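COURSE: Structural Biology Practicum
ASSIGNMENT: Worksheet 4, Part C
STUDENT ID: 0417
INSTRUCTIONS: Below are two proteins. For each, the amino acid sequence is given first, followed by its structure token string. Answer the questions at the end about the second protein only.

PROTEIN I
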Amino acid sequence: MTPIRIALITTLALLTGLWILAEYLAPGSYRSLHPFFTQYTGAMGLAMMSLALVLATRPKWLERPLHGLDKMYRLHKWLGITGLVFMLAHWWWTPGEQLRLRRGWAETTPEGIQAWFQGQEAIAESIGVWTFYAILVLIILALLRWFPYHLFHKIHKLLAVAYLPIVYHSVVLIRFEYWLHPAGLVMAALMIAGTGAAAIILTGRIGISRKVQGTIRSLTFYPKLYVIEGEVELKGDWPGHKPGQFAFVTDERHEGAHPYTIASDWVPEERCLVFIVKELGDYTNQLPRKLKKGMPVTVEGPYGCFDFEDNHPRQIWVAGGIGITPFVARMKYLAHHPGERQPIDLFFTTDEYEQDAADKLIADADSAGVRLHLYFTPRDGFLTGEAIRSAVAEWRKASIWFCGPTAFGKAVKRDLVSNGLSRADFHQELFRMR
């Protein structure tokens, strides 16, 4: 099971256990499951949203445990969907009777802060209902792949805004007795963390300590491949990066930052990064017309754990299309550090072919001592796990590093694992940030 699956399932199990414990220990526990599920589903929806906001700030300390920011964003997406399911269940379960009756306060007269909470109930419920409708629309739009990226970027800011009234709604309407138990303390911590994350998002301070300014030094277009290669000269204190890592690049403030794999080794004396970008969406299709030599950009990073570090005697790299970029960076690195070489086979499959780009790739492979297997799909057919196994006799002793289309990766992994490869030896970059 992957780290992000473990993280999601463990979080759900622990929070559910805490709420069951709180209900068992709270005085005057409910006689019906209906009000308990109303409380539980609402709290879980808020908890998932809180954690999703925290991950949206790109916390560096979580990268290694979750195996990279690409995996963190996958978990962020799952948390958002799970939170939406809990919110829908909460909306469905919420009874129409008076709030204080379903909370079990009908037989007591609240005093002090509890009385204040009760006085806020009507407005808190109204705010929660309308904010839920807004969140429902925003999350659905965020999940649509065709939705423009610059609007997707703005939606995430709106979700951070919508989170704040949901916190107010939850503080008022969570059963008062629950705050005295571990479940309440955990919810308070999640609300504080989520509110802090929302503040970071709304003030534009995500990754602020990891941003440096740069200038586009050169641009190379490969029209047959629909690819643009750009070299950026950095002016700030870039910490260096490992081959296979990526960075967020911003060339227009209103568009937001876009993630691109770094396709170069880090040479401090040159202070340059190379990015290779394929025209795949509404934004990247415009890059050949928008980017100009000398244009200022902001670079944030580095991020990612697709770093080729293992203790296997050999490696097999598999790249599909623009997924070749991390391997180009690694080959540049190996050319500068020949003592770190190990037997490596690179399988690269592409639907488009341009001789200049192919010559560069062949030269990089030769310099790095990498055995290149080039598959031009219209000519050579589809690359399969069987073809990889046939070409590399000692494939079972190798670690597999894959970057390319998700369906292609699943097919290769399925073949290799079914023939004896350990799942832990298959490393895949999940380079979808939405």
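PROTEIN II
(use this one for the questions)
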Amino acid sequence: MAQRVTSSIDLQETRLRYADTVDANATGITPSVRVDWNLASISAYGTYAHLPNAWSADGSATASVFTPTRRGWSGELAGTLGGSTHEDGTRTAAVTGAGRLHLDGANAGVWLGAGAGTTSDGFVWRGIRQGEGGLWVGSGPGSLTLAVFPTSVDDSIRYTDLSAQGSWHSGRLELDALLGSRAGAHLPTIASNATTWGSATAAFWIFSRAAIIASGGTYPVDYTQGFPGGRFASIGVRIALTHRPADASATDVAFPSANATADFRVDPIARGMTVIHVHAPNARTVEMMGDLTAWQPRRLSRGSGGWYTVALAATPGSSQLVLRIDGGEWNPPPGLPTVRDEFGGMTGVVVIQ
């Protein structure tokens, strides 16, 4: 059974400028889905865009398999299949695979990997090799990822991309931003060989399953398919087809880590003391915060059988709390009634005896 399924559909109107010379408007629809298990994940998206007197479609699917985590270390094998087709008959395709080694803590982690594959611009297939490495840091609603991608295409094009990606998701508002820089190859036959780019996206959830989204920025040349860089601005609507984490009920709680599941219970051990138990055998870290911790994060201690525990001073009555697995989002513990807090998120309610 899947640990978590998330899916949505975006409807957008976009203004494009290719290679800083050609302007176009596009109306598009983009469905996407992600499915997570304890040690695996699959994600896919597709886009259909209608331009003046033309149409275009593209899509991609990625699958990853993880090893169990040992002392913070885990391995990953990933594969990606993608492509595009256009009204004028041109097509592109890409098939790549990669291996990664991760070292993760509660609020930070690093990874190193390498991959290879083949891509086509519709006329010629080219081999591609890519290394990668990076680090992430995250706390509460915010996270930052820094990465480097040295790439070789057919041993004739070599370049290195650097990227910084940040996100801040809290309540109804989701903000994401990307900055990139490229060193290396420059093709005189392709216009707009920009060496830096950036973009930002904002989503505001006006209802539990409907958001207004706006985005804009620039994007780089795709050397594997010969596409020029450009700039864009778009506005649209996102429809969530599954429950968002903030709207998860007590009987349908999803934790964001691909390596963690959780069961929860509270046991009094003495007058004025209680113990929180979380069963997450594949988790790297488990944290909680709530009324019992003055809303300061407390890291739980790992015990036998995949159980994490923490002893806290407590007085009889109801208390609100949330859990975080592997430095992901804060969510209500499974099996508890939930209430919405003043920021629009959900917290669990436990009764201390």
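ANSWER KEY EXCERPT:
Q1: The two ends are 34 Å apart (CA to CA).
Q2: The chain has two domains: 4-240, 246-352.
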